[in-house]
Amino acid sequence: MFYYYLQLGLHSLKRNPLLTALMVFGIALGIGTSMTSLTVFYLMGSDPIPWKSDKLHAVQLDNWSADQPYRAPNEPPDQLTYLDANALMQAGKADLQAAMFKTVWPLQPENPDVKPFSSLGRATYKDFFAMFEPPFKYGQAWDAAQDKEHARVTVLSSGLNEKLFGGTDSTGKKVRLNEIDYTIVGVLDKWQPRVKYYDLTIGAFNDAEEYYVPFTTAIELQAQASGNNSCFESAKPGWEGYLASDCVWIQFWVQLDSPAREEEYMSFLNNYVNEQKKLGRFARPLNNRLPDVNEWIEAQGVVSRDAQIQVGLSFAFLIVCLVNTIGLLLAKFMRKSSEIGLRRALGATRGQLFMQHLVEAGVIGVSGGLIGLVLTVLGLTAVRSLYKDLNNVAHLDWFMVLTAIALSVAAAVLAGLFPTWKACQITPATQLKTQ
Amino acid sequence: MLKMNHLSKVYRTHLIETHALRDFSIHVREGEFVAVTGPSGSGKTTFLNIAGLLEEFSGGEFWIDGVDVRGMNDDQRSRLRNEKIGFIFQGFNLIPDLNLFDNVDVPLRYRGFNAAERKRRIEETLSRVGLASRMKHYPAELSGGQQQRVAIARALAGSPRLLLADEPTGNLDSLMARGVMELLEEINRQGTTIIMVTHDPELAARAQRNVHVIDGQVTDFESEPQLRVPAQGSGAAVTA
């Protein structure tokens, strides 16, 4: 019977093309609007590395001033000092660990046709690649010895490799960054985490870096971080004074492969801070944190309150569209009352007619959903062109496509319930004479 | 085939009560062709609607083909209607955007027949009313008489035991009316019981028995007529 109902539904839609178009477009508009905001919202907050997000932890140590917390009510800083990052790296207590900071260096291409340009990079340790798993196209990450030796080595993004070497295997070649030649040891394949969770200090949705160099090399070369730098008291003058200060500017991530390892590491951090307290640092009560990726994204407010309100408003708009559809469906089904009466006279039960009209509402929902998807794609295109920083999250994936269709059908069926029920209350006898 | 004993139907509003049928008794035997006549508002259509299980009654007893209708729920009534009763309406009541094949198909769909069985029945009944060649036509492409023939085919497709006709020729000119009437007579000769509501004394005279209704009561009941011998099918003569 479902196929029969489907045929009848399509027939019915063709019967009143204008009314049908109004209903379908009403649902499509509601779906397009709500799905656009929902997609952005969903991708903003979705797990960027689901297979290991519970194993990756940001390290937070509360080295802030005794007078006030880093952020109310009692949040520790979201970055570490060089002193602490260096100490944690030296201790090497996690399964994998990497201190890191953002750099923006001028890049001088060998090719004279390509003008020098400034390029976004990251100074980090070799474990960065094992922890965050960017895919390699050529070569591999540098090794521990190269970290130790402050080697002049680099890993390029596929985009930069394309720009400088036409996408060919450039491992072994040199690239000149900030007037120093680095040997390319690896080239990444395309990699763009939806949320740049490992460094949320400057834009959660920025592009991934174009090159990676050893942290130790960058420190030796006294490379200033291009990210946030926060101090609660002035640092002593000079580079060494800055490194010895309580200014926080380094992101620190560890991989801990089990809850037991997590406990061990937290205990290690607490011991470390207690030792530092003896040296006159860490004036605040013990307040170390090890949030995993999703906890980190939530705590850092990646999904803003504005985005939540926007989703709420767009769903309110969907409800307005549904109310409109309820009215139109009611008018449509009431116009069919003589046919409904006739079908009752010919033996249709109320249940059969109820199903028939729900399927008809469902057909409107699927049509509205498909057009709504097109509107969603247009909406996301508009979002991308208006907000460049949302470039990486304003994309429709299969889950959201299916969600849009399901939402649309559910919305249309919901809108169809009352008109359908109303239509099934028609007394056949009163309709048959009036036709 | 159809038996009503002291049936009543009362329409109530908060101001008045209208007795559409009162103490209404009738017994229509299998194979009969009964014409129900009476002035407008006498209760003919109410009787037909109750007979067709399209309306509930307020009191009394009612059997169709030996089945007591009292206490049946809406689904049970729908199924009984689908299996045992065919309707022919004055206004034909065809669905305009379905072709003839699909119009005749409607009751068969609700009956749950498979596609092959439905096709066989549709082709057979449309042939029977002389419209087999126009299966893919739409109602608007047919004359009134042809549309009524399609409605008759639709009523017959499910092989009902009882055919209820409400002014079946009321919207037709005399030539077409005669054609439809001849078709109904032929259907009756083949064994189907027919109850026809009509204003037309000439048509009523062609029925085997006339029931006259005034003010919701049967006033003139031509009882116990000799029934026709079915032309084919069941074979046995049916007597009152």
Automatic annotation (TrEMBL), chain A:
Q: Which domain of life is it from?
A: Bacteria
Where is it mainly found? membrane
Ranges for domain MacB-like periplasmic core: 20-264
Tell me where the transmembrane regions lie: 21-44, 311-333, 354-378, 398-418
Which part of the chain is the ABC3 transporter permease C-terminal domain? 313-428
**Keywords, alphabetical:** Cell membrane, Membrane, Transmembrane, Transmembrane helix
Stated membrane topology is:
Multi-pass membrane protein
Pfam family, any one: FtsX
Q: Which InterPro entries match?
A: ABC3_permease_C, MacB_PCD, Macrolide_Exporter_MacB
As for subcellular location, the record says: Cell membrane
Please report the name of this protein according to its UniProt entry: ABC transporter permease
**Native source species:** Tahibacter harae
From TrEMBL, chain B:
Span of domain ABC transporter: 2-240
Listed transmembrane segments: none
* SUPFAM superfamilies reported for this sequence: P-loop containing nucleoside triphosphate hydrolases
Provide the coiled-coil residue spans.
none
GO molecular-function terms, A-Z: ATP binding
Q: CDD domains given for it?
A: ABC_MJ0796_LolCDE_FtsE (cd03255)
Keyword ATP-binding part of the UniProt annotation = yes
Keywords per UniProt: ATP-binding, Nucleotide-binding, Transport
**Which protein is depicted?**
ABC transporter ATP-binding protein
